[in-house]
Specification:
Helices cover 57% and strands 4% of the residues. By secondary structure, the chain is mainly α. The chain has a two-stranded parallel sheet. It has a two-stranded antiparallel ribbon with strand order 3-4. Helix 8 packs antiparallel against helix 9. It is elongated, with a radius of gyration of 26 Å.
Length: 339
Amino acid sequence: METLRRLFSWQLSVLLLAGMAAGAQVGNPSQTAQSPGSPPAETATPPGANEAQTTPPMITPGITVTGSEPRAEPPLPKLPPDKFTNCYWANKSTGPEEMDFVAMENCKVQVAMEVRTVIEKCINRNGKSAPPVVILACTELLEHDIFLGSDRFYVYANRAEAYIAQGDKQHALDDYNQAVKLAPHNAKLYYNRGVFYLAQTDVDAALRDFDTALSLNPKLVPALLQRAKIHKTQNDFSGALADYSEAIRLEPKTAAVWSERGYVCLLQHDYENAIKDEGEAIRLDPKMARAYFFRGAAFGGLADSSKARGDIVTAVRLDPSLQRYVTSKDSNPLVTPPP
């Protein structure tokens, strides 16, 4: 869930102060429906791209919500359309045919502060707001048109994340679909919806979204990695190698990607290239147990039992859970290929 949360830390904060004084509305109906500029929406490194797996087996995608029970939060301010008008007439001290500029300015500040509070709850940048609070805040923003035009996709995307956190898959999908409709050129939206589909084991839908994301932004490394994993599970090793190779070209210092490509080489019995890729992964991250494990398997494939034994021993020392993939024969370690 953290992946989704950080991937959708959009630039809502940029919009917080724009236009609040005029009825507390923010938006630009004429804005084109595309990603909010390359930085940060398209260049921010989504979580997970640099994280190495601790065990070789491929994990079935899923969503896990962790953390302590959310603390009680104060109720959100209500944002009826006539909020400013009610405030002004309640505080007006001049005659009925005179303008009370002091009351007007005070009410602008009050409304702006309340709108900001609701926006911050919807954004949930620190991840501390409970999903129901995020949903309520985003719903208020949508119902009272605080954002207009394509800017509303930010709100739908964040509300979708909150729906996922509380297990409401259908509402999450509805919001993702609405966000994509409002911003059809935003690669990150397709990526995140693809991750959602993958968590529901709808591989075909996930693959379509990753393809679309990459057609819009060929440099979106997380989409390359997700698509490569799908190719790998479908035994499309050439497709997996192509995506991992492109990811390495874009992020050559990410050890986990080198190890993933090495694993694909290992599955194809291309032991020499597997050794090279896992060796680079180890150079970048000397404590990556899975890289030693896969390199040891590749050395075993070349009948180099001495080097195979050394790498397997190191892998198990770094991650004892890998021991279950190792058997013994004549005192030589044999690697059981992970699923």
